[in-house]
Amino acid sequence: MASTEVCLFGRRSRPFCAQDNAEGETRMKRRVGTHAVTAISIFGILYLLSGSARAQSGTGQVSVAGFGKSTVQPLPPGGSAPRTADGHPDLSGVWFPGKIGREDLTAEGNPARLQFDPKVTPEEKPPYQPWAAEKVKKLSTLDAEILRPSVNCMPRGVPGMFITNPYPIELILTKTEFIQLDELNNNFRVIPTDGRPHSKDPDPAFNGEGVAHWEGDTLVIDTIAIDERTWNNFAGWFHSDQEHVVERISRPTMNYLTYQVTIEDPKVLTKPWTSAPRTWSLGHEALQEYYCTNNREEEALKALRDLTEGPKK
Length: 313
Fold this sequence. Notes:
By secondary structure, the chain is of the alpha+beta class. It has a single domain (about 70-290), classed as Lipocalin, CATH 2.40.128.20. It contains five helices and 14 strands. The strands form three sheets. Strands 5, 6, 7, 8, 9, 10, 11, 12, 13 and 14 form a ten-stranded antiparallel β-sheet that branches. α3 (about 140-145) runs antiparallel to α5. The longest helix is centred in the first third of the chain and has 15 residues, at about 40-55.
């Protein structure tokens, strides 16, 4: 059988794990090697996807012996959060999703890696309007993978920079700005924190136009004009040009950051959707360079879809 060339990307050869998407599902993708190009057959792709299915079933196992057996524990609170000269919590630092403050290649399946426990803080499904629900329902699993913006090396956007991002981020808080640096594709955004209003008619952008203000110890970021090519989860949650995102970020203790987002979209949703509060933990290492380039995964997934579902007309 002819082989298909696939680019599989990963940070430090770690398996890609993007848990806790807006559907409350766990979606795990195996990414092996950094900027590696691997020639594999269609059966190889099937094997990769079967690994993803095992991960989704909750076994937390991958092909390397020892994964899923970690005894890593959540970080302690670490005391009070530091504060800036003007009295606000200092959100600055390198933050990892979950509660362990680093990557642990043996921790697959460990609850400490989760950003929230759906049994404790359940997250409702997106309240789609009927036509939007039907559009999402018609997507097969492979279609959802092929159309997923990140497969096409596009930015995750807002709120994807947080809620569909399994890699560390660095936050920098100055007197006048909130700066977010993502290791994933080295994306960034710079947001004024002086409470200014939005522009009258901002141009669409992947990260939209964000403005921020403080409500007590919580930084509130209000974003509009978000590029419609971004998704809000890995399962096809598209949005319209009227999407309005409000993010709330706080630092309750030294070692923990809390993130929660509300999404309004009168063209797609029946009501606003609010995520569960998500936990990020303080790390002590620099971000690495990670770019998605020359990604051939889309071609591989299309070949697999044609094999299993027949060619699309």
